[in-house]
């Protein structure tokens, strides 16, 4: 049973026969009927006229539906079969709901062009094809319901029923990387068009474990079927990644397009990938697979780090896509002597004109993004420009510490957002499992050039979400020496917020289980160097108590922390 439906974007949809006459329509019908048979559903009574022994002739039923788009059910009954209108009406409604429950993607082969006017024309055409398809699907449903029920509703609802995301793909033949030819045959996504609200329901909504790093080759031992896989070439900070996604997990590919900057075929002409990720590879196709890799593994394959996420239901969570990508990014940065940071960073501008850049370090649920959001709601603050939402890295330029980010979007918990925020960004966001604990939204927040521009930092703060404080002067403390600072940052304590499988007060080296843990010895030397540089150059290194993990302070704690930071900035 496939959850993803791939719609051919090369067809301009204008009539119902283009839908009902497709093999995919009958396949979808067969899948739906098989589910009903397992449940012994009374909805199957609508198909009694098409029963053949213990099964149903769905080809004949599809032809019957096609006839229903042109004639009233009473007219057809006089000619062919008697089908109970009420039962058929319920069946069609349920089948339409089943279709809408699918992850629906339209894919169109188009060669990328440099000229932005021509590219705009290509994307406009794709949008038109998507709108046409959506209109035909809606009208098909309405026509069937009208001809079965002999009524037409006085209230019409434009339910989302077309493609949720449209992808423009090509197979580049001029890219610089030529080492593994199977990669070049996989369709490469260079453009994406969203039809909001994009809501996807996946089989998991938590990640667990730390990704093991294995010194072994893999790229020479596998090949991906270009009919089942898609390649998303993305920029993760200043690094180029090839992320291969199986069609069944295309919802997570769509998430990549909303979280990272897509690289174009033009970019591939001049660069080879720094990192590679394969999402949704069956365990039996992973060479020398062992169960320690169940939630993912990273291979150090000669000059590349290659992440692999096995095709298990428990891995059907965008957090695995994002964190594996960022772990590979961090491993590369450590190899280059840079300091990867799991945290948020923003440029804070007060109405008085004063401007500072603050970086918050902490694991998932520490209150980093929430504190920045609270700052943005304070009367004295003119603007908060988020530059890093989750992961970045530090470099030393001309003797000073600078930071650059990785993502142009944010992958955040709905519960941790201020009331109404998710709805205000619905037209740009991807929602994942909005009805469950740890429901998430992927929303773009910045442009790529700003994210990768090195930014000088003024505050380097550990986000402590577990210490309850009552006095305002205790909400932010600054360290007098490097050893105390390194101790707090290295311990990486936090109160779990349900974003992972952990519970209670947990620790993670440098609050970064994404590369720092795997290369702790190398990371610690780099951290000492950067901490020294920060103390030397006057960066304020400290701890901010967000209380996000303290019962009763989940909302108020970050606001109190934001007000304390505002006071420190005003006194500078």
How would you portray this structure in words?
Strands 1, 4, 5, 6, 8, 9, 10, 11, 12, 13 and 14 form an eleven-stranded mixed sheet that branches. Strands 15, 16, 17, 18, 19, 23, 24, 25 and 28 form a nine-stranded mixed sheet that branches. The radius of gyration is 27 Å and the shape is globular. By secondary structure, the chain is of the alpha/beta class. The protein contains 16 helices and 28 strands. Helices cover 33% and strands 26% of the residues. Helix 5 runs antiparallel to helix 6 and helix 11 packs across helix 16.
Layout: helices, strands, pairs:
Layout: E1 4-8, H1 17-20, H2 23-39, E2 51-52, E3 55-56, H3 58-68, H4 73-79, H5 85-100, E4 103-109, H6 116-149, E5 165-170, H7 181-185, E6 188-194, E7 198-200, E8 213-214, E9 229-236, E10 239-246, H8 250-259, E11 261-262, H9 265-268, E12 275-281, E13 297-301, E14 304-310, H10 318-335, E15 339-350, E16 355-361, H11 368-376, E17 381-388, E18 391-397, E19 400-405, E20 409-413, H12 421-424, E21 430-432, E22 440-444, H13 448-452, E23 455-456, E24 459-464, E25 476-478, H14 482-491, E26 493-495, E27 505-507, H15 520-537, E28 540-545, H16 556-570
Parallel strand pairs: 1-4, 4-5, 6-9, 7-21, 8-13, 10-12, 12-14, 16-24, 24-28
Antiparallel strand pairs: 2-3, 5-6, 9-10, 9-11, 13-14, 15-16, 15-17, 15-18, 18-19, 19-23, 20-22, 21-22, 25-28, 26-27
Helix pairs in contact: 5-6, 11-16, 14-15
